[in-house]
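Thread amino acids onto this structure.
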């Protein structure tokens, strides 16, 4: 199995449907590595511990992280299953960015950003990253998020272990549309 396919399977197992692979995440989203390796075999992914370590280390967005003792693995963000990552609120920069598709912009400006099936709204520290996130959904559009003003209003922000900014939702008054960099 290619690394990209394996990364997608790990995202599926560790963010969305652990039950489908016969896995149970603990409250903080961790799964024992030995259980994971056994479960992966049922999905034609017979990989060794060192192969798993290599996939985690080389992952383009550093999506997964081992516990300090190396016995457990979890996804650093993006969950639809309920987990408590134990992230502490952090002061965000004045501006953050959200990448989406142009077809969602009117609805987002009317209703605000909602987490959908995930636990948080995902925000990017720069325009280029937001544009890449938006492109996954179609023609990209970028929204500027007044994160500093939200923070001053008492809305908490978190940063995942792999640098993604997270917050519960973004009300419309903190959003402003931007043109993508490539236009
Ligand atoms: C949109 C990837 C209409 C929202 C990325 C987005 C990210 C609304 C879509 C991570 C809306 C949800 C998450 C509203 C939000 N009306 N549409 N009121 N509010 N939306 O995939 O942020 O590769 O759940 O704009 O890099 O695209 O998986 O969220 O387009 O960090 O590691 O609803 O996934 O990381 O889509 O992506 P998603 P996202 P990974």
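Threaded sequence (183 positions):
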């Amino acid at each position: 199995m290619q690394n990209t396919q394996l990364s997608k399977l790990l995202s599926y197992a560790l963010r969305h449907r652990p039950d489908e692979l016969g896995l149970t995440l603990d409250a903080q989203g961790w799964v024992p590595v030995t259980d994971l390796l056994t479960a992966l075999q049922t999905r034609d992914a017979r990989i060794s511990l060192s192969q798993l370590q290599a996939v985690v280390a080389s992952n383009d967005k550093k999506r997964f992280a081992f516990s300090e003792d190396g016995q457990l693995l979890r996804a650093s963000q993006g969950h639809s299953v309920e987990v408590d990552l134990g992230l502490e609120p952090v002061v965000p920069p004045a501006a953050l960015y959200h990448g989406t598709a142009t077809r969602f912009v009117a609805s987002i400006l009317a209703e605000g950003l909602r987490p959908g099936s995930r636990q948080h709204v995902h925000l990017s520290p720069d325009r280029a990253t937001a544009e890449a996130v938006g492109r996954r959904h179609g023609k990209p559009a970028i929204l500027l998020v007044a994160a500093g003003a939200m923070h001053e209003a008492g809305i908490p922000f978190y940063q995942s272990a792999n640098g993604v900014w997270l917050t519960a939702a973004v009300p419309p008054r903190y959003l402003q549309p931007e043109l993508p960099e490539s236009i």
